[in-house]
Amino acid sequence: MGTGWRVRLARPPHLDPAALRRDILARLAGLVAEMSQWEPDSHLSRFNRAPAGSWADLPPDFATVIACALAIAEQSDGAFDPTLGRAAALLGFGASVPAGDDLAAAQAESGWRRLTFDPAARRLRQPGGLWLDLSGIAKGYAVDAVAALLAERGIRHFLVEIGGELVGRGVRPDGEPWWVALESPPGMRLAPLHIALHELAVATSGDYRRGAHTIDPATGRPLAAGVISVSVIHESAMLADGWATALTTLGPARGIALATEKRIAARIVIRAGPRPIEHLSPAFAAMLED
Q: What keywords are assigned to this protein (predicted)?
């Protein structure tokens, strides 16, 4: 995933930390083997190379993520689109592409509506020339997956972080919740926000770390400057991750409107001249009041 991970926990007496670390690494390696666009033998990469009209059998994790990605795509009217892998690769954010490929062709052959997904059979149809890119949602799913693994091991109190996406369960050993500072872009003078992640997750999308890498589904090119970052708080890190990407694409006005309609707790930060402007959805503002 091109990032690191951390787990903090209240250690039960029976816990073997070395064994737990091995289990976490194995779980993450399995997800990379399914959904990495950089691993040529991953399930995702094989789907991207599959001939037009062929069906791919998906492992359970992959099927869960693509189902969620398509649901967010539909609810956001395509602001989140998991089919921009070729455009991302051509722009330098993914795997290598064949010589002679171009953005016009990639744009013409992308589009989440071209996908046919059979959730009962866990099968996905390749319409031809379409490349998946799940980087806007799979990291959040990985956070949820590690959290589920810890719960299965009988661990009730923990904080999981992968590349800035976090989920908290239970409380710290001192009885306090897992407080995290909401990520803000460097140099932005914003009031500090601390979130108590008690049975909650938070994900932040923004172009201030790796440059303009969020692709506009309407153009196949990086988004124009405007939105600096979007943070979403949700029970699911996967949903927080996906919605943060969708709201980034929509921008402040449409993003807050959709977050209000869907009751999503979101903070959108934009640059207006030398100063940042912060937009909060009603659900996010209500959490601050609590």
A: FAD, Flavoprotein, Magnesium, Metal-binding, Transferase
| Whole-angstrom distance, CA of residue 82 vs CA of residue 76 | 12
Per-domain residue ranges for the chain? Answer: 158-289
The three-state secondary structure class of 163 is coil
Contact between residue 82 and residue 73 where contact means Cβ atoms under 8 Å apart: yes
User: Would you say residue 215 has pLDDT above 90?
Assistant: no
Looking at CATH, the fold of the domain delimited by 158-289 is given as T-fold (3.10.520)
Alpha-carbon gap, residue 255 to 13, rounded angstroms? 46
Q: Is the pLDDT of residue 113 over 70?
A: yes
Kindly state the tokens that stand for 27.
């779980």
Q: What is the pTM of this model?
A: 0.92
Residues with Cβ within 8 Å of residue 211, at least 6 apart in sequence:
none
Tell me: the pLDDT tens digits for 64-101? 999 999 999 999 999 999 999 988 888 877 777 777 77
Residue labelled with tokens 């064994």: 19
**How would you classify the pairing of strands 55-57 and 116-118?**
unpaired
List CB contacts of 247: < 8 A, sequence separation 6 or more: 79, 205, 230, 232, 255, 258, 259, 264, 266, 268
